[in-house]
């Protein structure tokens, strides 16, 4: 049944509004480098357009009722896009010095994002048996993801050690990096195994690759002086990846294809036939 919000979605097309808001915000952000004197703080209009894009992205996940792959998946995305805004609010409080206990707030924010990435990993690997045969079949995407991710990840770990030493925050961030890698790998495996329709797995995979790129750049941002061109560059670059990442992940909730993928049907059958053999009827 089509609701008023669904009709509003189809009429005004959220993604186009979101993309336009992101582009305007990025133009404003990058223009800071060319101003005299250079503006190291984000402008008010940039923040307004980012918040607009962020709110609309969350609405995508929250208005998917009846148009997702399943009721369970729709609830999952609502949970996901409850955690993400909560974590982002904590990081805003941290970055803008709006709270005194900054290490604790940062730790809670990282922990929430760990829950987000772990939840995405489990969702995207639904039906994956972790058998030797399946691991061999998916060796190529796992190796490619690890080869690209970990050289950058290890350099980030070394940098984090120079800043934090062996502290609880250092350990927490290392755990987050491992879970982030697993999340990206799970999205790549999901795409190759067609766990969801192709358009959805592509959106999820590209979204998580973009999310990981944002996080790795943001980690490097920690090591830079607050008032520097490099800080502006890495901040802008991380935002270039972050909002599009959230948009792609949110849009992957929608059921673009009328026919659910064969693997989804298989998972449903296995759930009700725990003792049956893994044979498939077309």
Layout of strands and helices, then pairs:
Layout lengths: L3 H9 L1 H18 L12 H19 L8 H25 L6 H23 L7 H6 L1 H26 L3 H26 L4 H24 L7 H23 L10 H11 L10
Helix pairs in contact: 2-3, 2-10, 3-10, 4-5, 5-8, 7-8, 8-9, 9-10
What does this structure look like?
This protein has 282 residues and is mainly α. It has one domain. It is 74% helix and 0% strand. The chain is built from eleven helices and no strands. Helix 3 runs parallel beside helix 10 (229-251) and helix 4 (71-95) runs antiparallel to helix 5. The chain is globular and about 60 Å long. The protein starts with a helix and ends in a 10-residue tail after the last helix. Mean pLDDT is 81; it is low at 258-268.
What value does the Rg take, in angstroms? 20 Å
> Structural class given helices, strands, pairing?
mainly alpha
Strand fraction band?
under 5%
> How widely separated are the two ends?
30 Å
What fraction, in percent, of the residue positions are helical?
Answer: over 70%
> What would the principal axes of the Cα set say about the shape?
globular
Please give the count of helices. 11
- Helices and strands, in order, run as HHHHHHHHHHH
Mean pLDDT: 81
| DSSP summary, beta strand count | 0
The structural domain count equals 1
What are its keywords?
mainly alpha; single chain; 282 residues
């Amino acid at each position: 049944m089509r609701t008023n919000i669904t009709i509003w979605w189809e009429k005004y097309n959220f993604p186009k509004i979101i993309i336009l808001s992101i582009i305007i915000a990025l133009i404003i952000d990058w223009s800071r480098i060319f101003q005299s004197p250079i503006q190291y703080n984000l402008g008010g209009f940039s923040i307004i357009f980012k918040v607009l894009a962020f709110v609309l992205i969350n609405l995508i996940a929250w208005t998917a009722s009846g148009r997702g792959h399943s009721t369970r998946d729709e609830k999952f995305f609502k949970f996901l896009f409850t955690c993400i805004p909560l974590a982002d609010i904590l990081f805003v409080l941290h970055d803008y010095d709006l709270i005194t206990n900054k290490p604790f707030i940062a730790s809670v924010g990282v922990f929430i994002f760990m829950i987000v990435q772990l939840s995405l990993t489990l969702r995207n690997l639904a039906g994956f048996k972790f058998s030797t045969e399946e691991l061999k079949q998916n060796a190529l995407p796992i190796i490619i993801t690890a080869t690209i991710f970990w050289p950058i990840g290890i350099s980030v770990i070394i940098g984090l050690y120079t800043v934090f030493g062996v502290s609880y925050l250092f350990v927490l961030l290392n755990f987050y990096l491992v879970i982030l890698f697993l999340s990206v790998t799970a999205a790549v495996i999901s795409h190759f195994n067609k766990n969801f329709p192709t358009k959805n797995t592509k959106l999820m995979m590209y979204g998580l690759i973009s999310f990981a790129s944002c996080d790795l750049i943001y980690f490097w941002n920690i090591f830079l002086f607050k008032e520097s061109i490099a800080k502006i560059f890495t901040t802008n670059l991380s935002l270039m990846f972050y909002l599009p990442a959230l948009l792609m992940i949110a849009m992957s909730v929608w059921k673009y294809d009328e026919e659910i993928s064969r693997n989804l049907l298989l998972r449903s059958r296995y759930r009700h036939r725990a003792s049956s053999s893994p044979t498939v009827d077309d």
